[in-house]
Design a protein that fits this description.
The protein is an alpha/beta fold. Helices cover 43% and strands 19% of the residues. The protein contains twelve helices and ten strands. Strands 3-4-2-1-5-6-10-9 form an eight-stranded mixed beta sheet, sandwiched between helices. A two-stranded antiparallel sheet has the order 7-8. It binds S-adenosylmethionine. The site of S-adenosylmethionine has 21 residues, from strand 1, helix 4 and strand 2.
Length: 268
Amino acid sequence: MFDYSAEFAKIAQLGEAVHTDKVTYSMYHRFYARILPLLPEGPILEIGYGDGASVKFWRQLFPEREYFCLDLDVEYEEDLVHVIKCDQSSLDSLQSALSRLSSKRFALIVDDGSHHPDHQILAFNTLFPLLKDLGSYVIEDVETSFWRHTNVYGYPLDCGIYSRSGLIERLKDVIDFMNRQFLPPHNLQSVSERLLKSHLNPSLCLQINDISFAHNLVSITKADSVAVATMSRDYRFQSNILSGPLKKLSYYLPSTLKKSLKSIFKFR
Ligand SMILES: C[S@@+](CC[C@H](N)C(=O)[O-])C[C@H]1O[C@@H](n2cnc3c(N)ncnc32)[C@H](O)[C@@H]1O
């Protein structure tokens, strides 16, 4: 049986030994203890080198896995470690890093870089396709979504609660989108439009299996083919999500005609 306390203690001990503030201050091992045991096989990618503590952390936790790290001004290779210069605020820079990463399929991607919400979304859009099915995409330090009139790593920032400049408010739409099967066509259209306005690509969000909002951290699991098919199938209580004339129409229409209408209007 999965032993959360043992996993928590193991990660805590390793994190303290290498002095990563993931453990010493942020206590993220209370989330990683549940995320890490479920990871598929494969390499790890992190944005944000800092003083290198997390390189040691991941290497000691997973000595057999290849580890890639992106940061502004550091670059080196050793054993299974590849540190690559990349600016996550720039699509060009992310895409040029992709030329070195694109053959990889990552089990875990961690964004511990600039913490600017626009960059968090840009990195997500660019890197999420490189995640393996059932792999985890973790965004640390989402506290910046609540910051007002300030800057982070020199990047100006003005978010605050309910602000759509923040990451958290924008990602809340993913919850509705994941449940698109239960939405009437006009709602699905408005959720898709909200995602697009937030620069979140709906076709990428189709591949989200689950999203978890934790204290200062968001984790997103990539759907496998079973999950994608489950979220895209016809809804068995379809008539319950329609109202007014649409509901009446749906009740009287033969199922074959309903199916063809659905395929024409692309609603689920
Ligand atoms: C919090 S530190 C990373 C800490 C490290 N992951 C750890 O746990 O030890 C954040 C890092 O993000 C980097 N950073 C800031 N802006 C960035 C950007 N636009 N692109 C890539 N990295 C950036 C900084 O240089 C810094 O090294």
